[in-house]
């Protein structure tokens, strides 16, 4: 069985993340979406909220499960006995950071953990969780970035509604 996991902050999950999840789920037999519980950062959504959003958004994908993790990615990979990491690449600007992470994880795991990159579909290439939060902080429309139920939750966090 070919297993992989897709780690990230997903704060919040965007259509870009969903695109990567759907495509990775069609390549691998089992895909785990792994939400980082980073105690050093103050996210917009708690780790439980982020996991629930991802579960709702992927409920039609039977081979996808969602969970959280903390600590080093390579330790989590060993625990799960899953050694393929999925990451999305939007643009060349992502590349340096992703290459460094992939090589660090390979080194830290003695070559056990490998990273597979999927290029984000062009229609989502401009999307990022940070820009979603920035638009929402100015009470803007984020309906082109995230599913409707996620947009509502984001608007609630920033205390407004979009008609
Ligand atoms: O969605 P993000 O914030 O770009 O995801 C980054 C993530 C979660 C993949 C990365 O921060 C990570 O793997 N963190 C776990 C800690 C770790 O293992 N760091 C060493 C890798 S350089």
Task: Kindly describe this structure.
- 42% of the residues lie in helices and 19% in strands.
- The chain has 163 residues and is an alpha/beta fold.
- It has a single domain, classed as HUPs (Rossmann fold), CATH 3.40.50.
- The protein has a three-stranded parallel β-sheet, with helices on both faces. It has a two-stranded parallel ribbon with strand order 4-5.
- 4'-phosphopantetheine (PNS) binds next to β1 and α4.
Observed structural traits:
two-stranded parallel sheet, 6 helices, Rossmann fold, three-stranded parallel sheet, alpha/beta, about 160 residues
* Helix share bin: 40-55%
CATH topology: Rossmann fold
User: What integer is the average pLDDT?
Assistant: 97
CATH class identity: Alpha Beta
What structural class do helix, strand and pairing data support? alpha/beta
Q: Which descriptor suits the 3D outline?
A: globular
Name the quaternary structure.
single chain
Cα gyration radius (Å): 16 Å
Q: What about the largest sheet?
A: 3 strands, parallel
How many extended strands? 5
- Supply the CATH architecture: 3-Layer(aba) Sandwich
Taking pLDDT < 50 over at least 5 consecutive residues as the criterion, the unreliable ranges are: none
The CATH superfamily label reads: HUPs
| Structural domain tally | 1
Q: Bound small molecules, which ones?
A: 4'-phosphopantetheine
Number of helices: 6
Percent strand equals 15-25%
| Major sheet strand order | 1-2-3
H/E order of the elements?
EHEHEHEHEHH
| Termini gap | 46 Å
């Amino acid at each position: 069985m070919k297993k992989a996991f897709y780690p990230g902050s997903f704060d919040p999950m965007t259509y870009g993340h969903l695109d990567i999840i759907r495509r990775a789920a069609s390549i691998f037999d089992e895909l785990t979406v792994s939400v980082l519980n980073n105690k050093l950062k103050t996210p917009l959504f708690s780790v439980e909220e982020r996991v629930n959003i991802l579960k709702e958004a992927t409920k039609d994908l039977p081979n996808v499960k969602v969970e959280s993790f903390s600590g080093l990615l390579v330790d989590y990979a060993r625990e799960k006995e899953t050694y393929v990491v999925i990451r999305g690449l939007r643009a060349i600007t992502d590349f340096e950071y992703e290459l460094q992470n992939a090589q660090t994880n390979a080194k830290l795991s003695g070559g056990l953990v490998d990273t597979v990159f999927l290029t984000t579909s062009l229609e989502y290439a401009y999307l990022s969780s940070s820009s979603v939060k920035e638009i929402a902080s100015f009470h803007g429309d984020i309906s082109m970035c995230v599913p409707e139920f996620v947009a509502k939750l984001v608007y609630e966090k920033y205390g407004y509604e979009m008609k």
